[in-house]
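Handoff note, outgoing to incoming analyst
You'll be picking up this chain. Sequence as last confirmed:
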Amino acid sequence: MTAADQSARDQAIDPTRSFCISAPAGSGKTELLTQRLLALLARVQRPEQVLAITFTRKAASEMAQRVLEKLEQARIEAPVTAPHERVTRQLAQALLTHAADLGWRLDEKSLNLRTIDSFCHELTRQMPILSGIGGAAEPVDDAQPLYEEAVRSFLLQAGNGPIGEGIGRLLLQFDNRWSKVSDLLVALLQRRGDWGSVVGQHHEPSAAEFAIRRTLQEITSQHLVGIAESLGSQLGLLEQLVSNARENLDKPAVNLVPAESNLADWRELACTLLTKENEWRKPGGVNKNLGFPAGSELKAQFVSMLEPLSCDESLRDALVETLFIPSHKPGDAAWDLVVLISSLLPALQAHLLVVFQESGVVDHTHITLAALQALGPDDQPTRLAERLDYQIEHSLVVVLHDTSGSPAML
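Most recent structure output, in case you need it:
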């Protein structure tokens, strides 16, 4: 954001509308967030009706101090000069008047600035049974030892019952290298937030497989849409050229409509554009083995398209990823491994819950999943979700990174 987008800045303060702000470091995002927070507080009956969520306690404290600082500067009428400072001053003065009319005491405790972890923990405390938390378990920042203990106890089941047989098959996939399997399972527990709500704690393996299949279909389609957007107007000509080349090899044409059902065709495109080492194919590698006869117009057209594409490394990475997406068909080694692991995840998660209960602590992911369970799905909200809907008028989420990639508070 720059001075040239003042109109967008003005709109972002409008408390009647929702916005997503994305901008690089030093562009004034924090000031804009402060302005919006002041504007929202001036519209509610109680300050806790405005919820601002950050990722760290430090960020929450800094934002609270910033808001209180602006209010104090407005109270003592400290001089301001810059246009954006005058906007902030007007919003702060309006909030001071509003707070005085309603008898508020504005301090850091009255502002509803929370971390995502503390907010989720509060939700689980309000509904301990429904959330699955039960007793007063406290989260820990470093849960690695808990994951490792859960994996050790889980792998000891190898050979005993259906779960043990599944563990045995998983070990065979990795040539009985227990350390390799252990590292994989620990990594999966670390990323439990990605699959915990899908697999659940008590799903039958078939239900877990269905959920993962559906998720994979959605992810694959989204991935292919991204590649199609990167190729833009070149996609149609590429489809024609690759199809003509395959015709020379007596193979069917490709359909590059970005849908999961066409994954095999997108893989053919990737294999034509890339080498076996997953690097961009050089003009010399475009030959009759790919369906491009030497000296043909077909080869010349393809090479002329290939050269500018080879400057886009992000596109190359996306094409490479296409080659490794599991094809959910029986007999496909990658998919069979996904199905096997998915059938074991509920039992693995159960072992982690036992470790949590025995140690009296949990990880932050467990708190988050429990909070989601306490709120319920969108179409069947719990009473807690309905109560929060009445209590919270506005919410802000402070993101973790700038678009530049460096850490930031806004």
